[in-house]
């Protein structure tokens, strides 16, 4: 990587790619399973990180201004909170991954052109945003997206292992066609 910008973009791509690997070989039914004590499914996690990245990317694209107002009212947003974790009947693994890839393309495009020091106004529509800070930099927001993707990729690892015992290196090996070794067997669907 030649510079910080390329590093941010590459690391975002790497963290986003974890969702492609962790979902490798899933059935549509498995995509919707929530096998742990919580309610997280792999499809819901993919959907959530896509929504999250899209929102932060649009904030970076608008910097130093706030992004255009949401299509829904704050009340409607509150009522719909958590919907991005729910996999609907018309969602599929292919459509969820395609949406994630499209958001990645948009993020990459924004970061290639953005002033990394430009201020991004702190949202004021949710209680978890600090009240004592007016703006973060584009750089900070990019790092926050990396953190968000990495946090949920870890959740996805646990959910996937709970579904069928598959772990990340086995899944990457299966996805990329690595040869089997004495210490790593690429994941393959059960017969």
User: Helical segment tally?
Assistant: 7
The largest pleated sheet is described as: 2 strands, antiparallel
- The CA-CA distance between the termini, in Å, is 42 Å
CATH level-4 homologous superfamily: dinb family like domain
Helix content: 55-70%
The total number of structural domains is 1
Q: Enumerate the strands of the largest sheet in spatial order, edge to edge or round the barrel.
A: 1-2
Please report which band the strand proportion falls in: under 5%, 5-15%, 15-25%, 25-35%, 35-45% or over 45%. Answer: under 5%
Q: Provide the low-confidence segments as ranges.
A: none
Structural category is: mainly alpha
Polypeptide structure, described:
The chain has a two-stranded antiparallel sheet with strand order 1-2. It has a single domain (4-176), classed as dinb family like domain (Four Helix Bundle (Hemerythrin (Met), subunit A), Up-down Bundle), CATH 1.20.120. Helix content is 57%, strand content 3%. The longest helix has 27 residues, at 138-164. With 191 residues, the protein is mostly helical. The chain has helices at residues 4-22, 28-32, 42-62, 74-80, 93-113, 138-164, 168-176, and strands at residues 119-121, 135-137.
